[in-house]
Design goal:
The structure holds two protein chains of two kinds. By secondary structure, chain A is of the alpha/beta class. Chain A has eight helices and ten strands. Chain A has one domain: Rossmann fold (3-Layer(aba) Sandwich), CATH 3.40.50.300. Helices cover 57% and strands 16% of the residues of chain B. In chain B, helix 12 packs across helix 23 and helix 15 crosses helix 23. The chains are: A alpha/beta, B alpha+beta. Chain B: Its main location: membrane.
Chain lengths: 266, 871
């Protein structure tokens, strides 16, 4: 039984660094994103300060429309911020041009999508090695072997996506995200399109990637059960950080989410 | 349902617009063709009608001579009546000579459709007004004098002993004339001289009281207020009486108005010309429309595929199959109609612009100011364009009915077009192709080996059409494989190219259709240019053998060496210095008597002397002079035929300085003289004068420009020398081939342009379909430049495969076509028109790149965020 209790964090609290000893892999400072103007202005993200530690598996959790996806897009440099800063390692991704952002995506960041997004005309292996090839690099065979072993893809490398199950496709996608040994992997609802068994499998692979391969993963999810696989859960509501749970369990994560809903309903 | 169709069209506006461009071009092509046909007809009509402007009535089939004129003039109400008489005469000034039609000046100058630009019309005998360009060429102005050299029949001689004497008279130029309506453009223009003079010249060609017997045409003007109908009858009567007096066919006499006359002549003349022209060009318009149909079918297939979910949803809520089919066909009809109207308007605009440009260029033919709209010009393009679009949409419409209602419930899937076609189609189309190629081979064999050129050509054409159909229909099976192979080649160059190659194979059917559209145009262009190149080489060889000398200058006009004047000293050197002249051989000649077994006793011919080595420097082909050696007389075939000389016989030649025994060698030499080596000629006539220059040109194709300079050089010496240019004939033949080729290729180019639009269309459809994928690629590190590059490689792959295959097919068809058509002209040469081949591949390469620009711009705008979107 997990006994962690949900502790609300005041709005003006300093950035939540769970273990100060670890250098943050990703940081946000006063990160703000607004859509529309005047009356119709929507603050999707409202001055968020948050650190994500390297070598950790962090889940960003919140209800629909809370701004969790926007936060991830800004941290990954996929979308431009209205104000504030986002850093991957020591590189500020806010304010980089497209060319520099492409370079960041090639070497420093990996992505896992809800819909897998594998290229249908390539085999599993070709899909995995594609990012390295696009960057004009050579594939590290040792690392590829490690990934394939860890993710259990050994017998599937010559198959095309259409011949793989959803869980297998998502494992290929994880391998693709990790092949360039990026500083951080962003996963957007990675289990959203999977049945619960495949979902559990994928989540344990993500956790193993962090524990055994020393990677950093930030996962966006609205599923408390998925969030429980993480080392830490950052709760977000109405575009603001609304809570922080270390070593979560499905129950504590759900409790946190419920608390947000009650806050929102009040 | 209609509202739904319309709203769907609005949503797909961009894609439909791309398909519309193909139809617009096709229908504009048809419209311009029909307009051009009309312009040809009306230009012919105008030019004929112009000859009679100013006349009130035209008498046709009348007896020539003054009697008819007088009889018609005596009819009450007739103001003037003049025979339209034209006499062709030789006009000279200095060394320049022009053969010009001279028109008898009518009593009423208003009847003359010519305008005076300088000076005046002739007023007194011995005056002449010249067309402006003729005056320029003769270098004269009003007031100057020119020489008229005409023939006069000698005294009272028996008919079979008629002889003419050349009479030279001075004429004064009274003025210069323009022909603003092109009335005489088909007769090389017209000069004008007093009627009495012209009648006199014509009369001098005949004996006293003789008549040419040719029916004449009279132009009649009436007094004001006279009733045309009544006068017309009276004139008919008067002209008929005059005709019967002259012993001519009375029933041929006919009085008509100028309009009636022009109409009947124009319809006689153009019953052929404009119909042939229109049919000919419409064949190319049909090819362009066929290609457009492929592009449209492609677009609709994708539209249906993209709307799978909507269509399935409609089926779920109760739409039946025929409603869906009707919806697609209605959409096609609307699109076809709208773009056909745009195409028609574009065609009319183009036609009008072409007329404006043509009028500004002074083509020698008066063009109408505006295009003439007939029901055919308006309706045919619109109907044809709409029908083609509708027919092209049939297959996609059937695909739409096959969408199952269940498809609406399935999770989001990338739309896929219908997969490969049936085995039956594969077997049938391959069979047709194989049979077609076999027939093609048989046609060539028939025409070359079996000596049956007509049958061979027919069989060959049938085989060509059949095999091309087979190739096109089976393209969907083998073309993707070729693209795959090409993709593997370029894929080696990096991940971007590999992505592109893989992409082209995702929808083999669409790639095949896109490449096929290009293949059609390129094959036909390639075929035409290959056939032309092969024909050129074959004909060159033929000409080389037949006309080995490009240009000859000779003074032995009379055919007897006796009174031949030598070529003026120094002329050889003068000609040699001219631009475009490569070499000049001075050929001495003398007249000799031939004797031998079976040789006609009266055989008197010219003998030329030339060194075989020196001759080789001038001749295109020395084949016909190969036997030339001491003791051998080369006898041209035609000379041998006339005098009964046989190959290899002993021939004794007797010249002024003695006889010479030779062996006759009969060859295909195109000359009327026997050829000997110089020493042999010297034996016959030690002082044989140089009576000819054999001139070799740098490039016989320039003959049309070079020969006149030689003519001028010869004319400047004022020696009575004749310049004969076999090269001119050769050049004009080549020009015909080149012009025909240029026109055909230009017409086919329209089909290629439409096909290239198809490439751009296919790419932009792919880009729309692959939005999420492009975003994913961007998210995992594909740069904008790489994305653009990927699409460029895709475009180039599709275009180049179509172009390369088209060129290869075109070569095969061109060679076999030339072999079948020119088999009679000897061994058909196989030529590769490298310049055209490279040009086509270059165009395909560039077009593939250009086609990818707009789709790439859309693609790079896709934010990587879209990869994360969940629809």
């Amino acid at each position: 039984m997990d006994t962690t209790v949900y502790v609300p964090i005041p709005d003006d609290a300093p950035a939540a660094g769970a273990r100060p000893a670890v250098t943050p892999a990703v940081r946000a400072r006063a990160l703000t994103k607004t859509y529309g103007r005047g009356e119709a202005e929507v603050r999707a993200l409202d001055g968020v300060d948050v650190d994500f530690a390297a070598g950790r598996f962090t889940a960003i959790m919140g209800p629909s429309g809370s701004g969790k996806s926007t936060l991830m897009h800004l941290l990954a440099g996929l979308d431009s911020a209205t104000s504030g800063q986002a850093f991957v390692g020591s590189t500020e991704v806010t304010g980089l041009n497209d060319k520099a952002l492409t370079a960041v995506r090639r070497t420093r960041v990996g992505f896992v999508f809800q819909q897998f997004n594998l290229l249908p005309m390539f085999t599993a292996e070709q899909n995995i090695t594609l990012p390295v090839e696009l960057a004009g690099g050579t594939v590290d065979k040792m690392w590829l072997g490690t990934l394939v072993d860890t993710l259990g893809l050994g017998k599937r490398l010559t198959h095309r996506p259409a011949e793989l199950s959803g869980g297998q496709q998502q494992r290929v996608a994880i391998a693709r995200a990790l092949i360039a040994q990026p500083d951080v992997v962003f996963a957007d609802e990675p289990t959203g399109n999977l049945d619960s068994r495949s979902g559990a499998e994928v989540l344990s692979f993500l956790r193993r990637s962090v524990r055994e391969l020393g990677r950093t993963i930030i996962m966006v999810t609205h599923d408390p059960a998925a969030a429980a696989y993480a080392d830490r859960v950052v709760l977000i509501a109405d575009g603001k950080i609304a809570g922080d749970i270390t070593d979560p369990t499905p129950e504590s994560a759900l409790a946190g989410l419920d608390a947000l809903r009650t806050v929102a309903a009040r | 349902m209609i509202r739904l169709t319309l709203s769907q069209m609005r949503r797909s506006a961009g894609r439909l617009a791309a398909a519309a461009v193909a139809i617009v071009i096709g229908t504009a092509f048809v419209a311009v063709t029909l307009l051009a046909g009309n312009v040809i007809t009306s230009t012919t009509y105008d030019s004929i009608a112009a000859q009679y402007t100013g006349a009130d009535l035209v008498v046709r089939g009348a007896a020539p001579g003054g009697a008819t004129e007088d009889a018609v003039r005596d009819v009450a109400g007739v103001a003037t009546a003049d025979e339209q008489l034209m006499s062709y005469q030789q006009l000279e000034n200095g060394g320049r000579t022009i053969f010009q039609g001279v028109l008898a000046e009518p009593t009423d100058p208003a009847v003359l459709p010519l305008t005076v630009t300088d000076g005046a019309l002739p007023e007194a005998a011995g005056e002449i007004a010249l067309p402006t360009d003729v005056a320029e060429r003769l270098d004269v102005a009003p007031g100057d004098q020119i020489t008229l050299a005409r023939n006069v029949l000698d005294g009272d001689q028996e008919v079979d002993e008629q002889a003419w004497t050349e009479v030279r008279e001075k004429l004064t130029v009274s003025g210069t004339l323009d022909d603003p309506y092109g009335a005489f453009s088909m007769m090389g223009g017209a000069a004008v001289a007093p009627a009495a003079d012209v009648q006199g010249w014509e009369a001098d060609l005949m004996g006293p009281g003789e008549s040419s017997g040719e029916p004449a045409t009279l132009l009649v003007t009436l007094d004001e207020g006279v009733d045309v109908g009544q006068t017309r009858e009276a004139i008919t009567g008067a002209a008929a009486t005059a005709a019967s007096n002259a012993g001519m066919d009375v029933s041929a006499v006919d009085v008509v108005t100028p309009d009636e006359h022009a109409e009947s002549v124009a319809s006689e003349m153009t019953g052929g010309e404009d119909v042939i022209f229109t049919t000919f060009v419409l064949v190319f318009a049909a090819i362009a429309l066929l290609v457009a149909a492929l592009v449209i079918a492609n677009t609709f297939q994708v539209l249906v595929a993209q709307r799978t979910r909507t269509l399935a949803l409609l089926r779920c809520v109760g739409a039946d199959k025929s409603q869906l089919r009707r919806s697609v066909l209605f959409e096609a009809t609307l699109l076809g109609l709208a773009s056909s109207v745009v195409g028609l308007l574009a065609g009319l605009g183009l036609g009008q612009a072409a007329l404006a440009v043509g009028r500004g260029m002074d083509l020698g033919v008066p063009l109408p100011e505006t295009i003439t709209l007939t029901p055919a010009v308006v309706l045919v393009p619109v109907v044809v364009g709409t029908l083609v679009t509708l027919v092209a949409a049939f297959a996609p419409a059937r695909a739409a009915t096959r969408v199952a209602p269940l498809a609406a419930l399935r999770p989001d899937e990338a739309p896929t077009a219908a997969r490969g076609a049936g085995r039956v189609r594969l077997v049938l189309s391959l069979l047709v192709a194989v049979v077609g190629f076999a027939l093609l081979g048989a046609g060539v064999a028939l025409s070359t080996a079996a000596g049956e050129p007509t049958t061979g050509l027919l069989v060959g054409v049938a085989g060509g059409v059949l095999s091309f159909v087979g190739v096109l229909v089976s393209a969907v099976f083998w073309l993707p494989r070729v693209v795959a192979l090409a993709g593997r080649l370029v894929g080696a160059s990096g991940p971007t190219a590999r992505l592109a190659a893989a992409n082209t194979l995702r929808n083999p059917r669409r790639t095949a259709a896109t490449s096929t559209a290009l293949l059609i145009g390129v094959t036909l262009v390639g075929m035409m240019s290959t056939a032309a190149a092969s024909a050129r080489i074959t004909m060159d060889a033929e000409f080389d053998g037949r006309y080995p000398v490009d240009v000859t200058v000779s003074t032995d006009l009379s055919g007897s060496g006796k009174d031949a004047t030598p070529v003026p000293a120094g002329l050889g050197d003068t000609v040699r210095e001219l631009d475009g002249v490569a070499s000049v051989l001075e050929v001495p000649a003398t007249s000799v008597q031939l004797a031998g077994d079976g040789v006609d006793e009266a055989a008197q011919v010219i003998a030329r002397g030339m060194d075989p080595d020196e001759a080789a420097s001038v001749l295109r082909s020395t084949e016909s002079l190969t036997p030339l050696a001491a003791g051998t007389a080369v006898v041209p075939e035609n000379v041998a035929d006339v005098w009964g000389v046989t190959d290899g016989q002993t021939l004794t030649l007797t010249g002024p300085d003695g006889p010479l025994e030779t062996t006759a060698a009969v060859t295909e030499l195109a000359d009327d003289a026997v050829v000997l080596v110089p020493d042999d000629l010297a034996t016959l006539d030690a002082a044989a004068p140089t009576t000819g220059l054999w001139v070799g040109l740098d490039d016989p194709r320039d003959a049309a420009a070079v020969v006149p300079t030689i003519q001028d050089a010869v004319a400047d010496t004022e020696a009575p020398a004749d310049v004969l240019g076999a090269a001119v004939e050769r050049a004009s033949f080549q020009q015909v081939i080149d012009t025909a080729l240029g026109i055909v290729v230009g017409l086919l180019a329209v089909a290629v342009v439409i096909a290239l639009i198809g490439v751009a269309n296919t790419l932009s459809l792919s880009v729309i379909e692959r939005r999420r994928e492009s975003a994913t690629l961007r998210a995992i590190g594909l740069s904008k430049a790489q994305l653009r590059g990927m699409l460029a490689v895709e475009g180039v792959l599709i275009a180049l495969v179509g172009a390369v295959l088209g060129v290869l097919l075109g070569l095969v068809y061109g060679w076999t076509g030339a072999a079948a058509a020119l088999g009679w002209a000897g061994e058909p040469a196989i030529a590769v028109p490298w310049r055209d081949v490279l040009l086509m591949l270059g165009v395909a390469l560039v077009a593939g790149l250009v086609a990818s620009v707009a789709p790439a711009r859309t693609a790079v705008r896709t934010s990587p965020v879209e990869a994360l979107a969940t629809e």
